[in-house]
Design brief:
The chain is mostly helical. About 75% of the residues lie in helices and about 0% in strands. The protein has one domain.
Length: about 500
């Protein structure tokens, strides 16, 4: 296949991110400078984000048989790059300056985040099982290092090892499933697999087994029940900006490729697999919300709540027709904004120099009297996660419910309503804690400096965005509709 200038333009976001990785690596080798590494990373990510605009003029375009760049890919590439930019800004505030911040080398954190982001960009463009696996591994391997980055904290090391072992097991299942699917369909292409499965009417036992094993591998990455056990431990042990990356960019990339796989080969979701996905959805919603009820650690609470949120997303995946793709797009966008805000507050409260992060709920008691703007941000984020009207989270939940009702998935809609009701309790508990009188237990709030203020300005922007999208969601809905039409077409 001949590559033209159009193909290179279509790959611009990925190519610019890759060039940024090389530049950052050379800059670190030449001279260690925390602020320089941060500025180079931000410049590269902003350029990659801006390069999506000219890409939209030439989509849809297949770049070899591996990658498909269309509006759907552009939407999720933009989401991943925005989430990565936010995490890089939070990492800068978290690692601090040489005098008060992180005791080890700080610059490699940016390099690993950029590498993982490049994996995410490959993943959302993947239209073949080979590119799916390459993207997934490029996304996962740097994250092992990121999770264990605060190596002087045994929780961080433990989380890194847990994530690596379980992720490797997930990848093994995924590869085995791909092999079985290839043996049955004779092709690695998503659309080709769909055509081969549709030709036989009902997927054969081999194909169903292959799809089932692939589902296990992908469910590990998305922390769906019963493959969720790593989530709270890894969220708690990982440095706060890394937990933010794991909860947003990493999961969005994996979910986007699952949506593409199921839309291009609809036969894949027929038969037993639909029932399995429905059971996993209900289990994730119920288990995630119930386990979050008695958490006294904010990171673990957000970890369990993320299990429930991806349970909600599975409802739209099972619906798969009508509003489904649009609902997934809107929900993922609102979820990314909200998770970034919640983890951002934990980041700005924490300093790695003090050992562990400020993630215990008692450390947030009376936060309103010490840091009112952080309290305002966390309040908006908790309301949005709970799906209260006038916040972005409400629009996301409304769309998921509409997709479920449209496809008459009454059990799943019932699970969503029940899950949201349980979720309301623990989100409000966090909010109430913020406004109580201060406790006498000593805390280790991170000191305020200019890096903290940069992160603070970004968090206020995220909180305003969460509110604006809750009041006026039309621009986001238009964007997602445009992307969804391309995928369906």
């Amino acid at each position: 296949m001949e590559l033209t200038s159009q193909h290179f333009l279509a790959l611009a976001p990925l190519l610019i991110t890759s060039v940024t990785i090389v530049v950052v690596m050379l800059a670190i080798a030449w001279r260690r400078n925390h602020s320089q590494t941060f500025l180079l990373s931000c410049a590269g990510l902003n350029l990659a984000l801006l390069s999506i605009l000219p890409v939209l003029k030439i989509t849809p375009l297949s770049v070899t048989t591996l990658l498909q760049v269309d509006n759907f890919a552009c939407l999720y590439m933009a989401l991943i790059l925005i989430a990565t930019l936010a995490c890089v800004t939070l990492a800068h505030a978290y690692l601090g300056d040489a005098g008060s911040g992180y005791p080890g080398n700080r610059e490699e954190l940016y390099l690993l985040i950029l590498l993982a982001a490049a994996g995410g960009l490959v993943l959302v463009c993947a239209q073949q099982l080979a590119s799916l696996f390459i993207g997934l591994e490029l996304l996962s391997v740097p994250v092992y290092g990121l999770v264990a980055y605060a190596y002087f904290n045994k929780r961080s090391l433990e989380a890194g090892i847990k994530y690596m072992v379980l992720s490797a097991a997930g990848s093994a299942f995924l590869l085995f499933g791909m092999a079985l699917l290839y043996a049955d369909a004779g092709t690695l292409n998503f659309a080709g697999i769909g055509a081969a499965l549709a030709a036989t009417g009902m997927p054969s036992l081999l194909a169903q087994l292959g799809l089932g094993m692939m589902l296990v591998g992908l469910a590990f990455k998305l922390s769906l029940v019963p493959f969720h056990l790593w989530t709270p431990d890894v969220y708690e042990g990982a440095p706060a900006p890394v937990a933010a990356f794991l909860a947003t960019a990493s999961k969005v990339a994996v979910f986007a490729v699952v949506v593409r796989l199921f839309q291009l080969s609809p036969a894949a979701t027929s038969g037993v697999l639909t029932q399995v996905l429905s059971v996993i959805a209900v289990a994730s919603i119920v288990v995630g919300n119930l386990l979050a009820l008695n958490q006294t650690n904010l990171k673990r609470l957000l970890g369990y709540s993320s299990i429930a949120h991806f349970g909600y997303l599975l409802i739209a995946l099972v619906a798969s027709k009508g509003l489904a793709v649009e609902a997934i797009g809107v929900y993922l966008a609102t979820y990314v904004i909200t998770s970034l805000g919640a983890f951002g507050v934990i980041t700005l409260m924490s300093s790695p120099y003090n050992g562990r992060d400020a993630d215990a709920l008692y450390e947030y008691r009376g936060l309103f009297w010490r840091r009112p703007y952080l309290t305002a941000v966390l309040t908006v984020m908790m309301l949005s996660l709970a799906g209260i009207p006038l916040t972005a989270g409400f629009i996301g939940k409304f769309y998921i419910m509409a997709a479920g009702v449209e496809s008459h998935l009454w059990w799943l809609v019932g699970a969503l309503v029940l899950g949201s009701a349980i979720g309301l309790f623990y989100y409000l508990r966090v909010m109430v804690t913020l406004y109580l009188m201060e406790s006498s237990i000593p805390r280790h709030d991170a000191p305020m400096n200019w890096e903290q203020r940069t992160g603070g300005v970004m968090l206020l922007a995220i909180a305003i965005l969460a509110f604006v999208l809750g009041v006026y969601p039309q621009p986001l809905v238009d964007l997602v509709q445009h992307a969804g039409l391309h995928l369906m077409g």
